[in-house]
Amino acid sequence: MDVLLAPAPVLLAGGSTLVSVAAALFVYYLRPAYILILLRWYNVWKTGFKIKFVNVAGRQFGYMERGEPQEGEPSILFLHGFTDRKETWCEMIKYLPGHLHMIAVDLPGHGDTEIKPQDDLSFKNGLVILHQFVGAIGLDHEQFHIVGISMGGAIAGCYAASHPEEVSAVTLMCPAGVRTPPLEQLGSLLIPESTAAIKEMLSKVFYNGQAAEPPEMILEGLLELRRPRNDSYRKMLAESKKTPNILENEYMDKITAPTQVIWGMHDQILPPSAAAVLEKGVPNCRVDMLERCGHVPGFERPRKTASLLIRFRKSVFKS
Fold first, then answer.
1. Residue 151 CB neighbour total at 10 angstroms
2. Which of 153, 200, 272, 303 is deepest in the core (most CB within 10 A)?
3. Which is the catalytic residue, given 80, 101, 110, 295?
């Protein structure tokens, strides 16, 4: 809390310190979700991104973008994981070169991207919708580098296999769709209904989950932000049960672009051993295993993950 209230004394000259502190305390204790929203906006601003929206087949997509396309430096499209959102990439992106053109999108039913009651939530229809988004923003004018984590990793790999003409490189971070554990187990973990359940989720997602555990009021805010989407998340999970290993069974051997797999050695959500399956099954694949890292390399070890991504790009785009 001290960190969140630190800016308040700056207003002393205007005689507003007490009001500022009172307002901060009010937000922190009564609507802690607002703190998380403000931190999210701050991270977007700090990394130089702009939040944008586009209508795709009657659906509003939210995404953030930084930079302009450059010759010899393919753009990067970032895909987040299940129940997450585009801003999750900010922590790692701050260690990437500023000249790169980067886009992070909210997948349907996440963040600022809509989902409708009648939507087809199947995995393959999700690929169709993502392809429509790519076309709507003109990203398909040149080949691009697609990067995904967890669910977004499965989508990234399957998209690269489905649209090889669009993709010049693939980075998969702890991707789903390969040797996936029972989804009933993951669903109860990743769709928490209480702060105690969120603590359990964090203990599994992060290598050192207890160290990453925020104050109770912040957990309340996180729960408040997630709760309205929980029914949609359950429907998505139910659809995923029909094709739990879709990347492994249907797509990985069709990926033609150079592929990088980054996996936390201590991942408790998806098995790190699946990296070897991808290394063997994807035609041109390299694997980087990260020590002291769980399911979210870009958040737990952002500097190292960014350096691996940069090194991979240099090896692929030598010019």
1. 26
2. 153
3. 295
Report the alpha-carbon distance of residue 72 to residue 168 in Å, rounded: 11
Integer Cα distance of 38 and 70 in angstroms: 32
Distances (CA, A) of 248 to 40, 104, 178, 255: 34, 25, 5, 11
Cα 15 → chain centroid: 42
Give the number of residues written for the chain. 319
> Does the annotation mark 150 as catalytic?
yes
Query: What average pLDDT score do residues 148-158 get?
Result: 98
- Determine which one of 150, 162, 168, 240 is catalytic: 150
pTM of the prediction? Answer: 0.90
Active-site residue, from 162, 168, 240, 267: 267
d(CA 257, CA 239): 28
Residue 140 a catalytic site member: no
Q: Is 162 a catalytic residue?
A: no
And the tokens for 227? 């709760």
Instruction: Give the tokens for residue 204.
Output: 């599994």
Contact partners, residue 25, CB within 8 Å, separation at least 6: 5
Taking the C-alpha atoms of residue 312 and residue 74, their distance in angstroms, rounded to an integer, is: 13
Q: Is 134 in a helix, a strand, or coil?
A: helix
